[in-house]
Design a protein that fits this description.
Blueprint (H helix, E strand, L loop, with lengths): L15 H15 L31 E6 L5 E3 L2 E2 L5 H9 L16 E6 L5 H27 L8 H10 L4 E3 L11
Parallel strand pairs: 1-4, 4-5
Antiparallel strand pairs: 1-2, 2-3
Helix pairs in contact: 2-3, 3-4
Length: 183
């Protein structure tokens, strides 16, 4: 008598697709995605039919800052260390017409930042941070003197009042190839 071959039992795989689909949904729902945050800057709204308007700005009200391709910082054409930039910005904003090389008033003070196409991103960020730190310190000092509180602790209306006295006027030009010359 011949022996009968035993067949191996089959595994029922009909529900495997359902299990894989449920696992996929579980991992999609529970996984968090890191969202990169850029530099928070409010840009003016774009209007397609806007005409070029000539604005008469006194040269003393503009603090010109250039970062060249060698990451050198030039303030008003002179090489400056980044550690001095915050103090220079504060001096420009709070001058109130005392020194003829700086702004007439805080509301007229403009900081113009120009970067070379070869400027490193890290250098751009560090310069931008120093400029914002200068504005933040001026606003915070005014808030402490006027309201007895730090700027961040003020109510919205008080913060708006401080911003009206010390508006952030930071002009950024499109990067150009200025080369590595230091003027």
């Amino acid at each position: 008598m011949a022996k009968k071959k035993r067949e191996a039992p089959e595994i029922n795989a009909s529900s495997m697709a359902d299990i894989a689909f449920l696992l996929l949904i579980f991992f999609l729902v529970t996984t968090t995605m890191d969202v990169d945050k850029g530099i928070v800057a409010t840009l003016p709204p774009w209007t397609p039919d806007q005409e070029d308007v000539e604005v008469d700005i006194n040269a003393r009200n503009v603090l010109e800052i250039l970062v060249n391709a060698k990451d050198q910082l030039l303030v008003e054409g002179e090489v400056m260390d980044i550690s001095q930039l915050k103090a220079e910005t504060i001096k420009h904003i709070t001058n109130n017409g005392r020194d003829e090389n700086y702004s007439d008033s805080p509301t007229k003070a403009i900081v113009s930042l120009k970067n070379d196409k070869g400027t490193s991103y890290g250098r751009y960020i560090s310069v931008y941070n120093e400029l914002r730190a200068g504005y933040n310190q001026v606003r915070n000092d005014h808030a402490m003197n006027t309201f007895g509180k730090a700027y961040d602790d003020l109510e919205k209306a008080q913060q708006k009042e401080v911003r009206a006295i010390y508006p952030l006027k930071l002009s950024e030009a499109e990067p150009k190839d200025y080369g590595s010359a230091t003027k």
